[in-house]
Amino acid sequence: MADELNYDDYTHDFMGKVGNIEDFSRDFLFKLARVFEDTINYLYHAQTTVFARPFDCQTEDLTKPALMRLIEGYWDQYLKAQNLWLDSWTKLVPTEEVWNLQPEVYKLIIAYEYPKLAKVCKIEPKYVVDYLKLACVSIDGTMGYGGKYEVIDRDHVVLKMRRCEVMQKYMDEGLYPPERAWTNCTFEQRISEPFFPGCKLEIKLPPPDLKIPAGEPFCVWTYTRQ
């Protein structure tokens, strides 16, 4: 039966079957898959819309303290989600390949997020300091890059990071294995450089055991124009 039927649409009589996708053509199934993709994404909207009704509150209704708490929650969930993606991919793809592909992932995220951030910040990024402004309010970078920034000029900035707050936070919570933390360090330059288009990023890494002498920075980031 599956070999005999290859419908491109469902304009024919009702077939009295449920989920009989084998009766349809590849072109039909491609279009059906796209509808399913959109519906899965819409599921989040549907669930939150219905269950949020008793609260009768939208983002634009929140006070500044409430918005700060919301944004902090978004930071946390975003970074935990990235960690879960690593867990998922390393079950399917060799770990080295997963890490080698991370810069491409971040390039896509940045290309999507940065124009929106630039609009909110009301800037057109051109210099290193402009991209630092965006990076420091981005969903990825806000929690983790605290330290002392030394602005040599608008195209030359040095960050002496006091500690990697994101990595340490999730290591303390048991969500980030120590061995992954060091791997993240070794890939940090490649992952972070896409946040600074047209710029050069150099990072002086901590030792592999992540133990830093008292008074020394955890790591040193130098941003310059290429």
Mean pLDDT value:
89
- The tally of strands reads 4
The major pleated sheet works out as: 4 strands, antiparallel
Q: Give the end-to-end Cα distance, rounded to a whole number of Å.
A: 63 Å
Structural class: alpha+beta
CATH topology of the largest domain: Muramoyl-pentapeptide Carboxypeptidase, domain 2
CATH top level class name of the largest domain: Alpha Beta
| CATH architecture title of the largest domain | 2-Layer Sandwich
- Residue windows where pLDDT falls under 50 for at least 5 positions: none
User: Into which percentage range does the β-strand content fall?
Assistant: 5-15%
Major sheet: arrangement of strands:
1-2-4-3
Number of helices: 6
Number of separate structural domains:
2
Q: How would you describe what is shown here?
A:
By secondary structure, the chain is an alpha+beta fold. The chain has two domains: 1-56; 61-225, Muramoyl-pentapeptide Carboxypeptidase, domain 2, CATH 3.30.1380. Helices cover 50% and strands 12% of the residues. The chain has six helices and four strands. It has a four-stranded antiparallel sheet, with helices on one face. Strand 1 (147-153) and strand 2 form a beta hairpin. The termini are far apart.
Please render the helix and strand layout as text.
Elements: H1 26-51, H2 64-90, H3 95-121, H4 128-137, E1 147-153, E2 156-161, H5 165-172, H6 178-192, E3 199-204, E4 219-225
